[in-house]
Specification:
The protein is mostly helical and 505 residues long. It has 24 helices and 2 strands. α1 runs antiparallel to α2, α7 packs across α9 and α21 runs parallel beside α22.
Length: 505
């Protein structure tokens, strides 16, 4: 391994984190003079500590050899999130947002992996700087910390740089917009920034303050879910906010390379992309399903008054049902996890849980900020099953799995099947461990799926109306690891723990 280059990259990553901590410090200083907030010194201290650590790594790796191996790329991607979270939790500890290491690390990891699960039960009392840093962790983690570093590191070469990019851009493989990885990374971040600025402007036209608009926009584009209020988006009681956020969650769930092609006039690339068509159909189908289910349950006798109120009231109009259903589908499939005025699916009843979990596991498109297994894998999975049935019925017929008109290699199909199997096994294993730690079966199951899918809300004690504060400390550490595994799509992280990875050749 190229140890000096690894230290150099970690140094640049930490210096980058220190820069954004400094930006958050500036926000805290402004609100110190504007309304008396006292968190600026916590963020400033954290920024200095992160800067010193980053400088140390950078200095020790300055005489690096150019080029890195695949193993270097995997190790950097896997450890970057842990290092960022370790330094990112410092402001929470210094200010007293949390009073222990477990909760601080959990909140930071949830932020950087854009899971959006929180243990905080006093968000409305937190100062502006802490809230801004909390949303910033989403924004940095959304498109990928390491992708950002690649945009700033033109000296990284070799197959390791490609491996870092592929490990950060989700799906079956990274979409190279330009011949060089650095050019691709810079274009992706340019699109990311532009969408964030547009959303800030649109949200500020509604009932939000500019500060709230900035925070919610960073969380939305990152499909994270952190909000500056405990009630999340329900705080605003605004259909406008919910529709705008839902639409941008849809946008953030698409492959960002499609926006690049649209920017150069190739709009037809959207509909030519088979994954995009699958995603649109899934969103429309499940929105219609929830509209029908919401209307149907009102005609049965076993529905309680509490369920009716959670489903929009006793006699909601169609626009309310449409808004509730569309927002629910988008905040779940995108892994955004925001809570709206009518979003407590925990109170809707068990009938609504299964389609909700299907959306959680499915996730958005490859190359997006969304979590889950990704629509492209679901498409390959379904087509592979269909192909197997065809061969069983017609043994002589040649049945090939195709995507965008091109045959999908058998090795890719096997990898999709393997990931699906491991994904399910890990969910049930985590479910079993959480039950051993004292959670009831509903809470354990919903929390497990949410963590691996980077969604945010779970079920039962970790449902949309609650935080994850009730999870035992051991469970929080395990769930933080599950969030990271889900963010890196399992294989990238698991391969680091195999003996083969560390074997010298």
């Amino acid at each position: 391994m190229n140890h000096r280059l690894i230290r150099y990259v970690f140094g640049v990553l930490l210096l980058m984190e220190a820069f954004f901590m400094t930006v958050s410090t500036g926000v805290a200083v402004y609100y110190h003079f504007a309304c008396g907030d006292s968190d600026w010194w916590c963020l400033a201290t954290a920024a200095v500590l992160t800067f010193l650590a980053g400088s140390g790594f950078w200095w020790s790796g300055r005489k690096r050899e150019h080029g890195m191996e695949k193993r270097d790329g995997y190790l950097i991607v896997s450890l970057a999130w842990i290092i960022f979270s370790l330094f990112g939790m410092v402001p929470y500890l210094l200010y007293g947002t949390v009073d222990n290491l477990t909760d601080a690390f959990f909140e930071a990891m949830s932020g950087f992996t854009t899971t959006g699960s929180t243990i905080l039960e006093n968000i409305d009392t937190q100062p502006h700087g802490i809230l801004f840093w909390r949303s910033m962790t989403h924004w940095l983690g959304g498109l990928g910390i390491v992708v950002f570093s690649l945009a700033l590191l033109p000296l990284i070469g070799g197959t390791g740089a490609n491996m870092m990019f592929d490990a950060e851009t989700t799906g079956l493989g990274g979409s190279k917009l330009r011949p060089k990885i650095q050019s691709t990374a810079r274009r992706l971040w340019g699109i990311y920034l532009m969408l964030t600025l547009v959303l800030i402007f649109l949200l500020s036209l509604g009932p939000m303050s500019v500060f709230d608009a900035v925070n919610v926009a960073m969380s939305t584009i990152a499909t994270g879910g952190f909000a500056p209020h405990q009630a999340s988006l329900a705080f605003y009681h605004s259909a406008y906010v919910e529709y705008v956020v839902a639409i941008f969650l849809f946008i953030a769930s698409l492959n960002f390379s499609l926006f690049y092609y649209a920017g150069i006039g190739r709009w037809k690339m959207f509909w030519r992309d088979e994954e995009f068509r699958w995603f649109v159909r899934i969103v429309l189908s499940f929105t219609l399903l929830f509209i029908v289910m919401t209307s149907a349950v009102r005609s049965v006798d076993w529905v309680s008054q509490e369920q009716l109120l959670a489903l929009g009231g006793e006699n909601p109009d169609f626009l309310t049902v449409l808004r509730m259903s569309f927002f629910h589908v988008m905040t779940i499939i995108s892994s955004g996890g925001f809570q709206a005025e009518y979003f407590d699916y925990n109170a809707w009843g068990m009938l609504f849980w299964q389609p909700t979990f299907v959306l959680m596991m499915c996730g958005g498109c490859a190359g997006s900020t969304a979590g889950g297994m990704k629509v492209v894998r679901a498409a390959v999975f379904v087509k592979s099953i269909k192909s197997d049935f065809t061969r069983m019925l017609h043994p002589r017929q040649v049945s090939i799995v195709k995507l965008n008109g091109r045959p999908v290699p058998t090795s890719v199909i096997y990898k999709v099947m393997a990931m699906f199997a491991i994904y399910v096994i890990l969910i049930f294993l985590m479910n079993f461990i959480l039950q051993m730690l004292g959670l009831d079966i509903e809470s354990a199951f919903g929390t497990s799926i949410s963590a691996f899918s980077n969604t945010g809300p779970g079920l039962g004690l970790t449902g949309p109306a609650f935080t994850w504060a009730s999870v035992p400390d051991a469970g929080k550490w395990l769930l933080a690891f599950a969030m990271l595994m889900g963010r890196l799509e399992i294989f990238t992280l698991l391969i680091v723990f195999t003996p083969l990875f560390w074997r010298k050749y």
